[in-house]
Structures are given as structure tokens and as C-alpha cells.
Amino acid sequence: HLATSLPLPSERDHLRPRIDLIAFMIDIKSKYSLKNVEASLAHVDASFFLGKVCFLVTGVGRVNYCSVEMNSIWKLGEVYCSPVLFCELELEGIRVATAQRLLRMLQICAGHIPGVSALSFGSLMRNSADN
């Protein structure tokens, strides 16, 4: 399910499936994109930041057209203890690899991978980014 911002409308709460992972998309070419994500973060329950949130940064192949500072994005990942993934949606191979990575994260967050929790996976992602 996709939403352009949070909070989600409450009138359909009873029809909404469980939310296992929230991927916030930030277009590196749009300051509005970052502002929208920052505003939406206030509507996410704190328990989701225990491995069930990630930031997906698109447009990284066009650094010359960058409107968002990379430090702002890295800081979001640090502040919210959530992994930051970078991709270029215009390149099919990278798009497919990113989709597969997100699917794997979703499987872990939904509890479909025995022995791996969203919290331990999130911690593993942060540790590997630090190295």
C-alpha cells in the first residue's frame, strides 16, 4: 500500500492490513520530499523505529541535481535508528536489486524468516553501515 504522507485516513482503519514495514521514500532532487518525510515521521508509533522503518533515497545517480543534503539524510537514519538505502530507479538492475532487498526486509519484519527479528535485522544493518 502506498501513501503520499502520514497520518493515514482513519475512516478505513478497520479495512487496513497490519503494517509490517514503513519505507519512507526521499527524492534527492526534491527538498519537498524530505520535508514531507520529516512531517510524516511524527505520526509513526515509536515501536516502528525498532527495525520496521527504512529510508529509501532515490535519484542518487544525479548528484549534480541534488536539492537535499546527504548529511540531512544520514542524520534521519541516525536519529530514528533506521537503515538508509540508496537507489537509482531509472536503472533496471538497481531497481530490481532494491525491490528484492525491500522484499527481504519486509519478510523479516513480518516474521516470515525464522530466527531473525526486525530489531536484530535493523541492528545488523546499522552495524554494517558503520563499518
Characterise this structure:
InterPro entries: Centromere_Cenp-M, P-loop_NTPase. Pfam families: CENP-M. The protein has a three-stranded parallel beta sheet with strand order 1-2-3, sandwiched between helices. The chain has helices at 31-41, 70-79, 92-109, 118-130, and strands at 22-27, 53-58, 84-87. It is built from four helices and three strands, in the order E-H-E-H-E-H-H. By secondary structure, the protein is of the alpha/beta class. The longest helix is centred in the last third of the chain and has 18 residues, at 92-109.
Please tell me what the overall shape is.
globular
| Main sheet makeup | 3 strands, parallel
Helix content bin: 25-40%
How much beta, percentage-wise?
5-15%
Low-confidence stretches: none
Distance between the termini: 33 Å
- How many distinct beta strands? 3
Q: What's the gyration radius in Å?
A: 15 Å
User: Count the helices. How many?
Assistant: 4
Biggest sheet, spatial arrangement of strands = 1-2-3
| Class from helix and strand fractions | alpha/beta
Please, what is the oligomeric state? single chain
Instruction: Return the average pLDDT rounded to an integer.
Output: 85
Helices and strands, in order, run as: EHEHEHH
Which helices and strands appear, and what pairs or packs with what?
Layout: E1 22-27, H1 31-41, E2 53-58, H2 70-79, E3 84-87, H3 92-109, H4 118-130
Characteristics of this structure?
single chain; 131 residues; alpha/beta; 3 strands; globular; centromere
